[in-house]
Design brief:
This protein has about 250 residues and is an alpha/beta fold. The chain has eight helices and seven strands, in the order E-H-E-H-E-H-E-H-E-H-E-H-H-H-E. The chain has a seven-stranded parallel β-sheet, sandwiched between helices.
């Protein structure tokens, strides 16, 4: 695949890595379709000639089905989906400092699985259905996390991202019949607002000390990983870890 010819759907495009990726790709690709629940955040891209904006709660199957259908009615040859939407969440399974209820919140468990895993299914199943219907050979890139290997204090986030990795491998085997690749990227710790919101600064400093590269990743390095997967047709069914050499234990 050549980046300049691609027509790409990016979820979670209103902020964080999604927003950065839009800026990185919009001059390099043919067309971008941006999806986010944050309608206000999407508006900053409204002036770009090759960008279409879609407000959608990707945890809602019917909403997602409708938006994906609209995209393919506009552009039947859309051939890349980047499942980027998600939220970092840190919460102990048992928090002895919480005197009201020390157990991990069931509401947070359900919400984070929906945001980080169910949304990937909702979007992918509809995109693949339209790709197959339109005989489009394409690519799904799932943004996972190093936490998929298991990380203390991130039960639901780790479980969701492990699920994303499993879907990536499963779909790569299942969809090759239709000429659709599936691959993943597992970032380590990157210098983003969501990292600093989810983690206390002393925790961030400790993490940096444990990364062999001795720094947080930069979003440009992550965007280049996306570009590599798009352009390398032989990369399939694998999770590309971009983590500065860090291994969670």
């Amino acid at each position: 695949m050549e980046s300049k010819n691609e027509k790409i759907i990016i979820t979670g495009a209103a902020s964080g890595f999604g927003s950065f990726l839009v800026d990185y790709l919009k001059a390099r690709v043919n067309k971008l379709f941006l999806i986010d629940i944050n309608e206000h955040g999407l508006r900053k891209f409204s002036g770009a000639a090759n960008v279409d904006l879609f407000h959608c709660d990707l945890t809602d199957y019917e909403q997602t089905t409708s938006v994906i259908k609209e995209i393919y009615e506009k552009e039947p040859e859309t051939n890349v989906l980047i499942n980027n939407a998600g939220l970092i969440h840190s919460e102990l399974l048992i928090n002895f400092f919480n005197r009201q209820d020390r157990r991990h919140s069931k509401d947070n468990w359900d919400r984070m699985l929906n945001v980080n895993l169910t949304s990937v299914f909702n979007c992918s199943v509809n995109v693949v259905d339209n790709m197959v219907r339109n005989k489009v050979k394409g690519l799904i890139i799932n943004i996972s996390s190093i936490s998929a290997n298991g990380n203390s204090g991130q039960s639901v986030y780790s479980a969701a991202k492990a699920g994303v990795n499993a879907l990536t491998v499963s779909w790569s085997r299942e969809l090759c019949l239709f000429g659709i690749r599936t691959a993943g990227i597992a970032p380590g710790f990157f210098d983003t607002p969501s990292t600093h919101i989810a983690l206390k600064e002393n925790t961030v400093k400790k993490i940096i000390s444990e990364i062999p590269s001795k720094r947080l990743g930069q979003l440009a390095e992550l965007a280049k990983a996306v570009e590599f997967i798009i352009e390398n047709d032989y990369f399939n069914g694998k999770i590309l870890e971009i983590d500065g050499g860090m291994v969670l234990s």
